[in-house]
Amino acid sequence: MNQKLIAIDLDGTTLNTQQKISKRTIRVIKALQEAGHLVTIVTGRPYRTSFNYYQDLGLKTPMVNFNGAYCHHPQEKNWSPGYRITLPSDVVSELFRLKHNDKVKLVSAEVDDSVYTSSHYIPYPDFFPHGPGQAKYLGNQVFNQEATCVNVFTQDKYLQRKLEKEIIADYGNFVEVRTWGGFAPCLEIVSSGTQKAMGLEQVAKYYGIDRDDILAFGDENNDYEMIQYAGIGVAMNNAILPLKEIANDITPYSNDEDGLARYLEDYFNV
């Protein structure tokens, strides 16, 4: 079998609903690496909330964060193929004004290794893995910097969909909006044209891996282009219907049933 590049999303794919990686998944991923295959994380999360999973899986590959806006190598600070794509400061400033909507729980802007927040709300347990002191709380201050990503956490999915339409109508030429669910549904906003397949392509080029030898796994609409790009794009059993419709395959089991690990075991005969 040719060397494969396996691209894994985190939330809803590699992680269960408790945001943990099972021992079975860790065992399988490590076995595949020992067999000579490559595994890379491609996530909408910032680096600060995904590096711990990178360590748990024993990875030594580049990583893609912010839905493709940041491609880098955690073990090589000056990795030359890496890149970071930012949103213009005026667009970021306007998006930050969404904090005035009383149903918006948090607006955050990711700038290099810093995160600026509109409130003290914590949208998921490891949003600040080293404690909320990591955040730079803005309160009523005006924010006016370029940012890799702006996140808007809402009260419910109805508002999420409404804001998505409004943001696209107002800034569609400048931004790409991706969404995911959870306790506080999130809109992830990056520069126009930015998506996960960009980062995955960069990693594949670096290793000289053909598209036919790429497997990609995801569950949400921010995985759409990545699933299309891969030679074998696999939607999780718990994935949204539009992703299942364009995927080459669907895992028989969900992220809470070790769906990723079981699929890889069968595919690679681990």
Structural class: alpha/beta
Low-confidence stretches: none
What is the CATH homology-level superfamily of the largest domain? HAD superfamily/HAD-like
Please write the string of helix (H) and strand (E) elements: EHHEHEEEHEEEEHEEHEHEHEH
CATH class of the largest domain: Alpha Beta
Number of helices: 9
Shape: globular
Q: Span between N and C termini?
A: 13 Å
What strand line-up does the widest sheet have?
8-7-6-9-11-10
Our Rg estimate from Cα atoms comes to: 18 Å
| Beta-strand segment tally | 14
Question: What is the residue-mean pLDDT, rounded to a whole number?
Answer: 94
Strand content: 15-25%
Number of domains: 2
**CATH-derived topology of the largest domain:** Rossmann fold
- What fraction, in percent, of the residue positions are helical? 25-40%
Instruction: Give the name of the CATH architecture of the largest domain.
Output: 3-Layer(aba) Sandwich
Major sheet attributes: 6 strands, mixed
GO molecular function: magnesium ion binding; phosphatase activity
Keywords: Hydrolase
Pfam families: Hydrolase_3 (PF08282)
Protein name: Cof-like hydrolase
